Structure to design on (1007 residues):
């Protein structure tokens, strides 16, 4: 019988049973009796025929529920089973308890992920893969089948149905189950014992949760310290209690569709009203000052993790005070209220009571009651300006009830401000910039060159970000190394096979190197899937720990940009090691003292090398270190080196050890955000390279603030050329993996010919270029007749970027998004490019230079007048200072301490750049302070001069200054060709474009 026919038959049978039961009850109940009093007794103590009919009806209702119930309804039923004891038999409650226990068992052993989504497999295969007894798995699976979860299409074979498959495709559902079974239910069962123990205590550390978990810290503290618990709690709130989801983007976008309803209740459904790209979000934590006084709508978002009742009351009173001086303002309160008893359906009220009790058991908190809220707002004329937005608890649709909205103003961006988020619709990005200037405490007036980009929520560990990509692209390539053959790491893959990890997906044959690009058109590229990277990294992590390498120790890698670097990067994140990388060729060219200095500075516990020269040099130096000899790993398998170990030997030792790899992963998920993730070194252009200790929280902040850069369009085949010693290599690979894309590694560093070759052979989607590379690649593309249509995003940076560079990029990569991104070894992500959809001709420039963007959330940027010790005005150039969660706090060994300073706002970094901020908040970097030239007391930056000359001549130019004893500092421009222009022509063009103080250069040519 098909599902529709089954549904019709079940509904008809249920209807017939209900009609028969009602008729029988009326016969049993006298006409003059109170049916509300007698009906319960009749149903419980009636004749055998009635009891038989009642059982038939309950069975049909259960069948009907199984046919129409989705995962959310299942979770809410399980969560509310205690509340249903009075309405259901003890037997039903016991069955639901067993179902919850079975789901928890399936989740704990990752059994659901071992079952393919679209076909059945033998139960024996699944038990072997999950490492559980076959008989036990069979009993538990068949118990869940009684509730419509999983199915057994043939004896001994297991498959998903629609209900169980949802727990694989949406892992948050399984997180909700794990929280319900492992945290919420044990806490609920300890409620009585906690009351006996502590009676009326209301502290957050004296809860049933503390008693059940045997933890001394509060539930909120545990969530902050344990990302897995925080993730499970969020999922339980969303799917188990019907809580309004944190992500209100769609709801808030839909608000403008109701703007023509003024002073009238309105009911809206979400899907049809969304206008993409017109809404942005900012957050304001509850309890902080409300700085926006002229918003159209204030949205107070109350959830089950909101602060205590007193905090909510204080926030409401604060908003009421704001509205007294804002005649057009409105309050919209997202549902987080307890309804009055009996005013709504029992099932909906049960979920509201569930949220309230859960908050009590976990944190000694409660939800605000409707009467309390109305008493705060019970004043005219404010009451009519209040509305409640809620998520109907029995429907997947989003509703807006009794919301009073202001009419849309076509010439002014509407702003919605909430206790946790600010949402603005906008006509253009600059209007948003102007709003940001006054939206946060510490921001100065719009005339001053200092902007606070607002807060950035940064709580996920590095492994948590990698697991996002792992979940999206489990069986897809994570690494393609174009300079290594397909079978290069076959020994590592064979060793990883014994520790096959099936966290997601249903494919079993992962033991061979991926062949997605192998052999295609004769190419033989090493390709590793996310599964393979993760599996190898787990074995390597266990092997490192087995060799005595401890978390927080340092691993120094002296290897090129290849698959081994990618594997060790993932492994280091998993093992919580501090990563440092160096280029042996650069070290050798710098001088004989550089490598010994590096070893003394880092004191590494692990050294990884590839070439024989480095190995011999290391053998000479490590014995002189005051510490224990590091674990030395040699990645070249072709030649065994005494005292050195290979990656495959590390994996073998990890496989033989008793180290629990799952515990390694769990510890990495809860990584300390203050731990030092990496120590990379500056270029050393102004002296000896300085070590930059980047915290885990700094790296994740950097990734979050730059997540717009490598998005879903750019990540499929992101070309990564930088040597691992450069910060951009780490950031780009991590961003690509976070998005679930493929990092294409070329091995030789930044090389235009490698870019051309990669684009010719692979549909590359993301490319990074420096300005000199743009000139070179434009010639290569023209000569090679290269098709660049696959490229979706081109990042330009590393030097001053001119309007001409962007225009040339747009010509070479037609159809690609060309962006400017700013970053430093000391940290980056302080700017966001706002012109992704702006025509190239409309991007503003300053003296021919392009902006680096607007200030990103999580960063504060100021332009500083060092001579007068003040913040510059807009349009005035000065030193660029940044305060950001992504920046380092100091250099290693106390180097260059003056690069950092503290004021009342926090710790600032002097970047060494000269910059200017325009009236709209755009920041332009003019060049490095050390490159500044001085002519007659006027500071001149080379980049605008060079751009001006290149615009006239069409040739690359270099501006330099030379000191003369008789004439002082003289400016020179060096070109390949004057292109029929005289030096006088060039000086007149410069004077016209930049002013007289920048002219009077001496122009010359060179071969």
């Amino acid at each position: 019988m098909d599902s529709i026919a089954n549904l019709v038959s079940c509904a008809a049978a249920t209807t017939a049973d209900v009609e028969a039961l009602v008729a029988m009850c009326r016969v049993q109940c006298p006409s003059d009796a109170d049916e509300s009093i007698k009906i319960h007794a009749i149903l419980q103590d009636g004749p055998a025929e009635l009891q038989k009919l009642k059982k038939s009806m309950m069975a049909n209702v259960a069948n009907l529920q199984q046919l129409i119930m989705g995962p959310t309804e299942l979770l809410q039923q399980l969560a509310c089973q205690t509340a249903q004891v009075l309405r259901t038999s003890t037997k039903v409650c016991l069955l639901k308890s067993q179902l919850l226990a079975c789901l928890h068992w399936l989740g704990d052993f990752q059994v659901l992920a071992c079952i393919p989504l679209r076909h059945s497999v033998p139960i024996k295969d699944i038990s072997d893969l999950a490492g559980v007894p076959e008989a036990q798995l069979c009993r538990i699976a068949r118990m869940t089948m009684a509730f419509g979860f999983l199915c057994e299409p043939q004896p001994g074979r297991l498959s998903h149905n629609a209900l169980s498959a949802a727990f694989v495709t949406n892992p948050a559902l399984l997180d909700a189950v794990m929280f319900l079974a492992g945290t919420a239910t044990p806490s609920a069962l300890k409620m009585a014992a906690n009351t006996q123990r502590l009676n009326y205590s209301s502290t957050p550390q004296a809860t049933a949760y503390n008693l059940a978990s045997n933890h001394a810290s509060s539930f909120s503290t545990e969530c902050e310290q344990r990302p897995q618990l925080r993730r499970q709690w969020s999922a339980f709130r969303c799917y188990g209690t019907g809580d309004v989801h944190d992500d209100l983007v769609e709801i808030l976008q839909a608000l403008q569709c109701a703007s023509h309803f003024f002073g009238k209740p309105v009911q809206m459904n979400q899907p049809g009203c969304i206008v993409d790209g017109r809404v942005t979000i900012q957050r304001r934590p509850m309890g902080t000052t409300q700085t926006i006084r002229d918003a159209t709508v204030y949205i107070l978002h109350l959830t089950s993790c909101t602060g205590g009742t007193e905090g909510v009351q204080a926030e409401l009173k604060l908003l009421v005070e704001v509205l007294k001086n804002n005649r057009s303002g409105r309050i919209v309160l997202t549902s987080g209220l307890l309804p009055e008893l009996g005013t709504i359906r029992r099932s909906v009220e049960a979920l509201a009571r569930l949220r309230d009790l859960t908050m009590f058991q976990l944190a000694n908190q409660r939800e605000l009651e409707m009467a309390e809220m109305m008493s705060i707002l019970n004043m005219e004329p404010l009451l009519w300006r209040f509305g409640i937005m809620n998520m109907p608890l029995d429907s997947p649709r989003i509703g807006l009830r009794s919301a009073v909205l202001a009419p849309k103003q076509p010439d002014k961006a509407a702003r919605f401000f909430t206790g946790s988020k600010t949402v603005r619709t906008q006509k253009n990005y600059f209007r948003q910039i102007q709003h940001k200037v006054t939206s946060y405490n510490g921001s100065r007036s719009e005339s001053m060159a200092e902007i606070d980009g607002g807060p950035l929520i940064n709580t996920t560990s590095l492994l948590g970000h990698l697991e996002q990509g792992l979940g999206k692209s489990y069986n897809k390539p994570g690494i393609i190394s174009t300079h290594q053959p397909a079978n290069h790491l076959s020994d590592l893959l064979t060793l990883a096979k014994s520790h096959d990890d099936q966290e997601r997906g249903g494919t079993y044959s992962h033991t061979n190197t991926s062949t997605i690009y192998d052999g295609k058109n004769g190419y033989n590229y090493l390709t590793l899937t996310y599964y393979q990277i993760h599996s190898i990294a787990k074995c390597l992590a266990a092997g490192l720990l087995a060799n005595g390498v401890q978390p927080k120790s340092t691993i120094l890698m002296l290897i090129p940009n290849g698959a081994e670097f990618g594997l060790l990067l993932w492994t280091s994140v998993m093992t919580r090691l501090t990563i440092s990388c160096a280029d042996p060729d650069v070290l050798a060219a710098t001088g004989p003292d550089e490598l010994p200095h590096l070893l003394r500075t880092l004191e590494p516990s692990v050294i990884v090398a590839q070439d024989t020269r480095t190995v011999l040099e290391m053998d000479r130096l490590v014995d002189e270190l005051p510490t224990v000899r590091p674990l030395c790993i040699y990645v070249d398998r072709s030649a065994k080196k005494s005292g050195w170990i290979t990656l495959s030997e590390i994996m073998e030792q990890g496989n033989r050890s008793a180290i629990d790899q799952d515990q390694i992963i769990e510890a990495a998920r809860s990584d300390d955000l203050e731990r030092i993730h990496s120590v990379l070194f500056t270029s050393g252009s102004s002296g000896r390279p300085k070590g930059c200790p980047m915290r885990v929280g700094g790296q994740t902040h950097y990734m979050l603030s730059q997540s717009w850069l490598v998005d879903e369009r750019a990540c499929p085949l992101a070309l990564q050329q930088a040597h691992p010693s450069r910060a951009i290599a780490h950031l780009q690979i991590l961003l690509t993996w976070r998005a679930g894309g493929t990092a294409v590694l070329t091995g030789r560093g930044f090389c235009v010919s490698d870019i051309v070759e990669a684009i010719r052979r692979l549909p590359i989607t993301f490319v990074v270029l420096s300005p000199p590379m743009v000139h070179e690649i434009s010639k290569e593309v023209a000569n090679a007749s290269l098709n660049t249509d696959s490229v979706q995003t081109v990042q330009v940076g590393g030097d001053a970027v001119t309007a001409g560079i962007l225009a040339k990029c747009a010509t070479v990569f037609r159809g690609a998004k060309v962006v400017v991104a700013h970053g430093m070894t000391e940290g980056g992500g302080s700017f966001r490019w706002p012109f992704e959809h702006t025509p190239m001709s409309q991007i503003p420039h300053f003296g021919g230079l392009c902006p680096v963007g607007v200030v990103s959330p999580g960063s504060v940027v100021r332009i500083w007048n060092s001579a007068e010790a003040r913040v510059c005005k807009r349009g005035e150039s000065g030193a660029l200072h940044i305060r950001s969660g992504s920046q380092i706090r100091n250099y290693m060994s106390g180097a260059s301490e003056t690069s950092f300073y503290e004021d009342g706002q926090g710790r600032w970094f002097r970047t060494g750049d000269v910059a200017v901020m325009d009236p709209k908040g755009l920041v332009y970097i003019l060049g490095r302070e050390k490159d500044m030239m001085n002519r007659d007391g006027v500071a001149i930056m080379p980049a605008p001069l060079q751009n001006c000359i290149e615009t006239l001549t069409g040739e690359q130019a270099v501006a330099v200054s030379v000191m003369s004893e008789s004439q002082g500092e003289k400016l020179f421009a060096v070109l390949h060709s004057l292109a029929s222009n005289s030096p006088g022509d060039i000086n007149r063009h410069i004077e016209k474009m930049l002013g007289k103080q920048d002219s009077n250069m001496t122009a010359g040519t060179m071969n």
Q: What stands out?
A: The chain has five domains: 3-175, 176-240, 249-425, 462-682+694-749, 932-1007. The chain has a mean pLDDT of 78. Residues 249-425 form one domain. The first helix runs from residue 3 to 28.
